[in-house]
Amino acid sequence: MVIDIAKIAETVGSLKDHLEEHRYICSDQIATAVYLSYHLRKPILIEGPPGVGKTELAKTTAEMFELPLIRLQCYEGLDEAKAIYEWKYGKQLLYTQVLKETLDEVLQGAKGFAQSISRLHEFGDIFFSEEFLEPRPLLKALREEDGCVLLIDEVDKSDHEFESLLLEILSDYQVSIPEIGTVKATKEPPMVFLTSNNTREISDALKRRCLHLYIPFPDVDLEQRIIHARVPDIPPELRRQLVEFIQELRDLDLKKLPAISETIDWARTLLLLHAESLDPQLVRDTLNVILKFQEDIENVDGEITAITSKVVKH
Amino acid sequence: MDRTLANFIRALRNSEVRISTAETLDAFNTVELVGYRNRDFLKRSLSLVLSKTVDEKETFETCFDQFFSFSNVHGSRESAEGTSEGGAESGDGEGGGESEGEGGQPQSGTQAGGKKSKTSAYGIEAEKEENLGAGEMTEAQSPLGQLLMHDSKVELSVEMSKAGEQVDVREIQVFTQKGLYTRRIMEVMGLADLDREISDLRNSPQVPMRRLGQELRRRREWLREQVRDYVERQFLLHADASGKRLREELLRKVKLSNVEHRSFRLIQEIVYKMAKKLAALHSRRKKVFKRGQLNIPRTLRHNMAYDGAIFNLKWKSVKIDRPKVFAICDVSGSVANYARFMLMFLYSLEEVMPKVRSFAFSSDLAEVTELFDRNKLEDAIAKTMRDYSGGSTDYGQAFEDFKRLCFDDVDHRTTIIILGDARNNYGDPRSEILKEMYDRSKRVIWLNPEGRNSWYVGDSEMRRYSAYCHQVDECNSLMHLERVVGNLLRTVQ
Fold first, then answer.
1. CA of B306 to nearest chain A CA: how many angstroms apart?
2. Do A71 and A92 lie in a common domain?
3. Considering only CA atoms, which of A243, A187, A183, A186 is closest in space to residue A218?
4. Which residues from A are below 8 Å from B306, CB to CB?
5. Do residue B283 and residue A200 have CB atoms under 8 angstroms apart?
6. Same-domain status, B483 and B453
7. Contact between chains at A89 and B312 (C-beta distance less than 8 A)
8. Considering only CB atoms, which chain B residues are within 8 Å of A87?
9. Are residues B192 and B339 in the same domain?
10. pLDDT tens digits, A215-274
11. Nearest-CA neighbor of A95 among B307, B216, B92?
12. Is there a contact between B33 and A29 if contact means CB atoms under 8 Å apart?
């Protein structure tokens, strides 16, 4: 069955429903972002605390539109050779070796240096042609015939230089390769998602080329629905309790607040343990699923009984 | 409608949301796609296009609510009716106008009385006036009077915005100008004529004319109210920020010891803003390539794929460390305020200077780093001030304590910043310890809040100390602080 992308993206409501079908429960704001990104052909820069579903949004969008997902994970030291293209040095080398032996044939009859050079020129710039080009994620995304979803993950981890490198592809959907020329996106430009954990400020130049979406922690209702979608087997009462417990935790002063992904993990854990309802001992035993710092665990330890009873009583 | 959006963007910029021309174009495209019909949808969409940080999103929300709640004043006719704008007074004015102004029907006295008690301002005035009761009125003559009697809120608000444009109400800067602009707008709208007419009417022998005079006068007051509201809103949208900017500009230059307590909040904001700017500028960890030195292991490893033929050269490079900063602050009475702001500044720069250790002294010195780790910035500063600011200044003692506490941690990457007036109450300056610090560390920077010309006067030891500092600076305003810290970040990287 062929998916009609334009139809799905016709209204925000339909986008939201389709995302939901693919088990991504989202707020209106998020659906609006995808809607605008599709219609205005603009990349989305997604920011928010870790674990609220930034990467997941890109993945789900790809799934929903049945487009290939091309992912570029950013890290310090990432450069164009790993992000856009590289020459196949080995192959080039091999070909030179081969060519060396047949050089006589090629140059046969050539008189003088000038003539040999012009003969060689007839071969053109074969060594720097598509044959020897190794496309990396960004170039691959541009060449994808029917469009794709390009996910540039954790762009804040990359260097400033790399950010500037992205500017061309983000605004014009093209990259320039000095030896070949400019590669433009095929008829359907990729949908670009960039995610950032805000470890550093993204430059204004990059920001102004993107829509800016901030995904905060979800409220109780939304989170319950997310858990319902992701861990459907969990009993409703336990679901309510654990979501409320997590919401309480987010009000505490912790080093790392539990995000949606932690809530999901916790729900799965509790399901595995056949828990019916929260109790302090159970919480204490499984706390390391939602809190990732020993310091936080120790801080919360004293509050567990109070929060649990508050949540269970409701 | 495009004008509305442009005005909105202008208002946003005024609230310090940075919006480029490209983003403005995006906003226009968005509006074209989304339309004005669904307010929430419009808000969500524009928030994606125009605000690019979490802070900006908050500002955007308030600005949007403020702006689009009374777009009717800007003259868009279709939305003029049926919004909350105007409130009680406008409702009264309208109600009165409908029956008396146009119809001119005789009205029952009870109804008129009821109205008087509703509008208090009118009520008071009315008591002084002769009670003419309701009845026939003549037609108003002056244009503004006609407009008022005509009773069209939309036309009035259009006139009002026109007059506003004419007197450049958007240029309003400080709140004291509100009265001025209100009067100017009224004048442009034809207040003089109206005044004349009212006084003529009131002196007229005929009852219907006097009645009109009363009515006009009442409506003039209502209009004044409306104009004042309009100016107020324009002020909020267009001037609030620039007024604030003016104050910020001043605060940057003012001597920190003269800052009033109520400005602390604003100063703190400025400090954060400055720190953020510096952090953005220096957050990049630079590498320095040692020119011409080949990194042989890396080169070999990278070229293994090419059969050992060396294509790709890798050079040696060094990553530059983040500065290690020791801040020693004199927190005795005379310098306390400066210390407060310097600590605020240093700790706001956590992103680029993660290794700040701070020490406070007046006579005895102690490390307060932990206080800052455990508490919020303001609390930590308050606690430091409370615990260490007593006692008379003794630099010799402080240096000795510093040596005892953490001399081993001072190395060639350390920058020591000392903030103090070097007034040692004629005690032993112990400058030999400072010399040791000077020899060991990368930099010693002395910041003195006093002006340069008073450095060598009285009990100041500045002459002695400055010999053992890499850099001595006068530092008594935020601007100085910014420059010093900026330099610090530049030189160490």
1. 5
2. no
3. A243
4. 89-90, 93
5. yes
6. yes
7. yes
8. none
9. no
10. 999 999 999 999 999 999 999 999 999 999 999 898 888 888 899 999 999 999 999 998
11. B307
12. no
